[in-house]
Amino acid sequence: MANPPTSIQDTPEKDADVGGIAADRLRSIIERVERLEEEKKALSGDIKDIMQEAKSAGFDAKVIRQIISIRKKEPAEVEEQETLLDLYRRALGM
């Protein structure tokens, strides 16, 4: 029969360091990321539903995604990209 632990170091604690790693802190971080991943999955499903709704209403989902991407950018960045796109099109005779 094993002797009972004689010091704090001998007792398994939830927040004890294991190999220099605070196990509770690590577990907390991992669980938080897992919860966020689940939320992200649910939000992705919601976005997919909205895009399907847009498509059903006659909108082009690909163009909607492009507009969303443009709205995230700074106006100067959008203008620069549009200028380059126009320049490249003219260079290709489009």
Write up this protein:
Pfam families: GapR_DNA-bd. Belongs to the UPF0335 family. The model has no long low-confidence stretch (mean pLDDT 88). Strand 1 and strand 2 form a beta hairpin. The protein is built from three helices and two strands. Helix content is 67%, strand content 4%. The chain has a two-stranded antiparallel ribbon with strand order 1-2. With 94 residues, the chain is mainly alpha-helical. The chain has two domains: 44 residues; 35 residues. The protein is elongated, with a radius of gyration of 27 Å.
Give the SSE map.
Blueprint: E1 17-18, E2 21-22, H1 23-56, H2 61-72, H3 75-91
Antiparallel strand pairs: 1-2
Helix and strand composition category: mainly alpha
**Percent helix range:** 55-70%
Roughly how many Å apart are the termini?
85 Å
| Strand composition percent | under 5%
Strand order of the main beta sheet, please? 1-2
Let me know the number of strands: 2
Shape: elongated
What number of domains?
Answer: 2
Supply Rg: 27 Å
Could you report the average pLDDT, rounded to the nearest whole number? 88
Poorly predicted segments: none
Total number of helices = 3
The main sheet comes to: 2 strands, antiparallel
Order of helices and strands: EEHHH
Which short descriptors sum up this protein?
elongated; 94 residues; 4% strand; single chain; 3 helices; mainly alpha; GapR-like_DNA-bd; two-stranded antiparallel ribbon
